[in-house]
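Task: complex structure prediction.
Instruction: return structure tokens for all chains below.
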Amino acid sequence: MTDIEHLVHLAHQTGDYDALIEQIPYARLIGIRVMRLGEEMIFHLPLNRDNIGNPILPALHGGVLAGFMELGAMLQLMVSMNSPTFPKIIDFSVDYLRAGLSRDTYATCQVWRQGRRVGNVAITAWQTRSEEPVATARAHFKLD
Amino acid sequence: MTIQQRAQTFLSVLRHCQVLGMTVEQADENGLVIKLPYSELIVGNPVTGVVHGGAITTLMDTCCGISTVCYLEELEVCPTLDLRIDYMHPAEPGKPIYGFAECYRVTPAVIFTRGVAYQERREEPLAHVVGTFMRMGPGPDGLKSFKLGGKA
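Output:
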């Protein structure tokens, strides 16, 4: 736990999330990256053949896209609260707006409410332009 | 081809599902069960070993999507419109997770599905799921409109 606490603190301070991501197996599996621009966090899911669902298009698996968005929301909460505990997912709702093709995907998260016990996060994912999202999602996390 | 064979064929072409080791356990006119084996690769919380929600979302999106073959005459491409998951409790580490899904309303344009994720018993789900899918029609025309229409 101290290890995670140190890594969250480090990410919070330096904007370098690699060491924290390295500790989360699912994050390594799908290959999520984090960029910080000033105070903003932008999540990046590089093109990866193993993340494909529909082979005909080919398209990113909808579940991977959702997992990427949920993971982004979780990291955003952890780093913004500078908290070493992993928020627990309560519910997750995703709307698919257009084909998530097999290419690089990006996401940003908006923490609408961060209470003592529950956090509400909206996530937007896009591939070409942020005004044309491939999916939007909303999640609640238990924080304590 | 039986419903089970159609479901297996469908699952076998989805690369990420193969990476996660997902298999069809049961498929008939009452719905579909898919198994997601436990693996350290899909852990989201390294402190507790609990599987990340993303892997469960992948299981349930796949399960709800493929459950359409249990109800349709022909294989159709049905992209997900939306999916919602409510977690009753976290998954227990070390044990496989099963997804069950059924279609509770099939219209010419849209299919409504619901299901649960569970470990020991379906009556004690770790998550409840509802998902809505778009019908693009059977055969090459459906695939073509899927490409042009751009829903995924």
